[in-house]
Amino acid sequence: AKDLGRNNYQFYTSELTEQAFAHLSMQTQIRQGIDRNEFIPYFQPQIDSRNGQIIGMEVLARWQDHAGKIISPAEFIHIAEKTGLIIQLDRQVMRKAIQSFLGWHLDSLVSGKLSLNLAVKQLEQDDFFDFVNELLQDLGCNPNWLEFEITESDIMSNLEEMSRKMGQLRLLGIKISIDDFGTGYSSLSYLKKFPVSKLKIDQSFIRDLPKDEDDAIITKTIISMADNLGLEVIAEGVETIEQQHFLQENGCHQIQGYLYSKPLDSQAMQTYLLNFQKT
Ligand code: C2E
Ligand code: CA
Ligand code: CA
Ligand code: CA
């Protein structure tokens, strides 16, 4: 039994070491990726299902490594957030995304908003407000064209500071949307006091619509709550026409998901917009 215990212990430590090593090596690679300017924006359109018009697009980060391979955020966002590398990473993606978006705006290919995911660490930076302000001036971007998505759990992690920071952004003219809404297990009373404009219904509630009765009730409740609070509401992860019909019947007209398009790189998005204009 003693031997077995020792073996287990060794197995355990070597597994831990392996994990720590993988973590460390990923961290080093992310840092190199940032230095090499390898983080890029993908874009996913958001559609008004009543008229099929594009009302905006969400920026989703991808890592195009030195071999050209596209790496998904599931592999790096978590470690980037834990190590603080997310701050530089997101700023890199943000600048590129706004640049592309402005080009489309100037060519009248799109008139809606650009939605950017914001990590709580980013919002906590003392210079974040200045960074955004300078970036917008530098690129000549109207703040009204931007929207930041902040997850409900990030907001709840530091309610007072987040509220203050979001108020500042609002004053600048940037709108705030609550991402993954409904998954934060939070009290809803914060919504009244919060400078937000939009709720984004989490895709976990959309997936099994319209069949799943719990999800149907939750989704309806979020939509009517948004309505009562004077907030906009958007559904993400919409893949089927049945899901869209359910949402439409219940008053949610803003749709994002594979039903319309997967996230596209900037060249593919440009083509999408050009084709869109023709139809
Ligand atoms: P999220 O903000 O909730 O983004 C939605 C995710 O759902 C995206 O995954 C998107 O590609 C995916 N998706 C969109 N439509 C559908 C659909 O119809 N069906 C299904 N099954 N999935 C759909 P992605 O791009 O892998 O991003 C994952 C998460 O990583 C994001 O979740 C967000 O939390 C984070 N993330 C992505 N880009 C950034 C970024 O630039 N900055 C920060 N801080 N976080 C980011
Ligand atoms: Ca998001
Ligand atoms: Ca989400
Ligand atoms: Ca369910």
UniProtKB/TrEMBL annotation:
EAL domain span: 23-277
UniProt superkingdom: Bacteria
The keyword GTP-binding belongs to this UniProt entry's keyword annotation: no
Keyword annotations from UniProtKB, A to Z: Coiled coil
Protein name: EAL domain-containing protein
Upper lineage: Bacteria, Pseudomonadati, Pseudomonadota, Gammaproteobacteria, Thiotrichales
